[in-house]
């Protein structure tokens, strides 16, 4: 991809239709380049980013991605009212962060947390429909992954689907290895 942030940006831009420097005004490379030697702890890095947590910064990336896709929907010939966000494991936290905190431009039309759970207590009234994918055996034994999400959406009377896969573990991902869990992309596609 490249050895410098500029080369990565250039190569990514070529791969994705010339989006070189998209969002460059919010890229932290200059901050890191100028101040990395001063940062000796995670608190120092958080301070460099204006006091925002990693979860907030990751959520900001998710919100910006949805805004960009929605803005360029006609150019890319996609429906701006059918933009979802999917996240696996820690990425499910990004997807849920966007779901719980968005504006009209960054609101997803579908949220797909894979191996995810929520730490929020209340679902926003305007939350997107939810499609939860979870393994029978996950990182936190005894706490069924995703069940709390489904229950929150159900209590709020918002659309939600919950799919638990027997005999699976965290990290089933997207593969074609003959396991029954591999049906999940088709379930999602058929929404």
Briefly summarize what is shown.
The chain has 8 helices and 4 strands, in the order αααααβαββαβα.
* Uncertain stretches: 15-33
Work out the number of β strands: 4
Overall mean pLDDT stands at 79
Helix and strand pattern: HHHHHEHEEHEH
Physical arrangement of strands within the biggest beta sheet: 1-2-3-4
Q: Characterize the overall form.
A: globular
Beta-strand residue percentage: 5-15%
First-to-last CA distance: 35 Å
DSSP helical segment count: 8
What is the radius of gyration?
A: 18 Å
Q: Which structural category do the helix and sheet elements fall into?
A: alpha/beta
Give the helix proportion (percent range). Answer: 25-40%
Main beta-sheet strand count, sense and barrel state: 4 strands, parallel
Description:
The chain is an alpha/beta fold. It has 8 helices and 4 strands, in the order αααααβαββαβα. It has helices at residues 5-15, 29-35, 42-48, 54-71, 73-76, 90-100, 147-155, 184-189; strands spanning 84-88, 110-114, 130-137, 160-169. The chain has a 4-stranded parallel beta sheet, covered by helices on one side. α4 packs across α6. The longest helix is centred in the first third of the chain and has 18 residues, at 54-71. The chain is globular and about 40 Å long.
Name the features.
191 residues, alpha/beta, four-stranded parallel β-sheet, 4 strands, globular
Task: Set down the secondary structure blueprint.
Elements: H1 5-15, H2 29-35, H3 42-48, H4 54-71, H5 73-76, E1 84-88, H6 90-100, E2 110-114, E3 130-137, H7 147-155, E4 160-169, H8 184-189
Parallel strand pairs: 1-2, 2-3, 3-4
Helix pairs in contact: 4-6
């Amino acid at each position: 991809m490249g050895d410098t942030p500029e080369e990565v940006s250039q190569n990514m831009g070529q791969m994705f239709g010339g989006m070189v420097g998209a969002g460059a005004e919010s890229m932290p490379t200059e901050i890191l380049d100028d101040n990395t030697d001063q940062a000796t702890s995670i608190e120092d890095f958080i301070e460099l980013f204006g006091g925002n947590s990693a979860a907030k910064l990751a959520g900001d990336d998710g919100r910006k991605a949805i805004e960009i896709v929605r803005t360029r929907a006609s150019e890319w010939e996609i429906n701006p009212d059918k933009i979802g966000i999917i996240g696996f494991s820690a990425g499910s936290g990004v997807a849920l962060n966007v779901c719980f905190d968005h504006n009209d431009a960054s609101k997803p039309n579908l949220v797909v947390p894979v191996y995810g759970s929520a730490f929020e207590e209340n679902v926003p009234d305007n939350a997107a429909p939810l499609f939860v994918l979870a393994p029978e055996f996950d990182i936190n034994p005894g706490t069924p992954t995703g069940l709390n999400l489904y229950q929150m959406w159900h209590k709020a009377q918002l659309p939600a689907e919950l799919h638990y896969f027997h005999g699976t573990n965290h990290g089933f991902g997207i593969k074609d290895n003959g396991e029954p869990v591999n049906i999940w992309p088709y379930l999602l596609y058929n929404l």
